[in-house]
Amino acid sequence: MELYIGYFAGFLGTVCWVPQAWKAWATRDTSGLSLAANILFLLTVTLWLVYGLLVTDWPLIFANGCALLIVLSIVAAKLKYK
Amino acid sequence: MELYIGYFAGFLGTVCWVPQAWKAWATRDTSGLSLAANILFLLTVTLWLVYGLLVTDWPLIFANGCALLIVLSIVAAKLKYK
């Protein structure tokens, strides 16, 4: 039971940023987005990926590898359309 | 070494949303924020908190308890100033 909640939380934590990336690129409206928060979050996801690689934890590597690409695209949209 | 990276990633993943919450309330500009993404992220953080409580993991409980309050304030700002 706990395990399913953990896996679902991990999955949701990765895909939940897809609507934000989509919105930023589709509307080009990124004025409300905090660049500081998104760069710090990008750093967070990168650190989790490094941690996952160091301890060879595949769910961590996979989830944060995907999240890295999505968050990178949000930061790119913010820098492009600021 | 891995442990320090993990702890720092956990800490950063919680505090990184403070600038976003601050920006949303200070500028009242939430037009670029995706409500769907932030509600899904709120659900993610809630699930991690529930998971932490079920397996009695205090770092998870503390980090996600704090994150829950911050993300809740971002969603509240988005709903108030949409």
From TrEMBL, chains A, B:
InterPro entries: SemiSWEET, SWEET_rpt. The chain crosses the membrane at residues 6-25, 32-54, 60-79. It holds the Pfam family MtN3_slv. One of its GO terms (cellular component) is membrane. GO terms for molecular function: sugar transmembrane transporter activity. Keywords: Membrane, Transmembrane, Transmembrane helix. This is MtN3 and saliva related transmembrane protein. It comes from Thalassovita mangrovi.
